[in-house]
Design goal:
Layout (H helix, E strand, L loop, with lengths): L1 H39 L6 H25 L8 H29 L4 H24 L7
Helix pairs in contact: 1-2, 1-4, 2-3, 3-4
Length: 143
């Protein structure tokens, strides 16, 4: 019994380490994508929040693929499109939290949009791991 618990914990730890490594790369690529969207969007009300939402919609596609094939490569996974759909569903609540946070930090409080983006990403990153690990990518019987 003890070996099984250690084995499961060790597997979870390796996944989380890969999540952090992939997440570091994703963080900087996502920041670049966000900055590009922020730059090309016209000056509109709630500019940073709109860029955040578009960044989420586009970023989830490639982030899902990276985590599916790298972070959770050793797990029994759901089919690609089922897991992508579940990722969007699972991320929807997290996206709402992040959008409200961006609205408050950047559009209301006047924090620099990249600082707001970074703070928001730090908040949602742990929630994203839990959603992928227990709902969207890894099969339930394997989580």
């Amino acid at each position: 019994m003890k070996n099984r618990t250690f084995s499961k914990r060790g597997h979870w730890s390796k996944q989380f380490l890969r999540y952090v490594m992939a997440g570091t790369v994703i963080f900087f690529l996502g920041m670049g994508q966000y900055q590009l969207l922020y730059t090309i969007l016209p000056e509109i009300p709630y500019h940073a929040t709109v860029a955040w939402i578009l960044n989420f919609l586009l970023g989830t596609l490639w982030t899902h693929a990276i985590h599916r094939y790298y972070t959770f490569r050793e797990s029994k996974r759901l089919s690609y499109f089922v897991s992508l759909l579940r990722t969007y569903i699972g991320y929807a609540g997290i996206q709402l939290i992040g959008s409200v946070m961006m609205l408050i930090l950047v559009d209301i409080q006047g924090v620099n949009h990249l600082v707001g983006w970074s703070l928001t990403m730090l908040l949602v990153s742990l929630l994203n791991f839990l959603v992928m690990r227990h709902f969207s990518i890894v099969s339930w019987e394997n989580s």
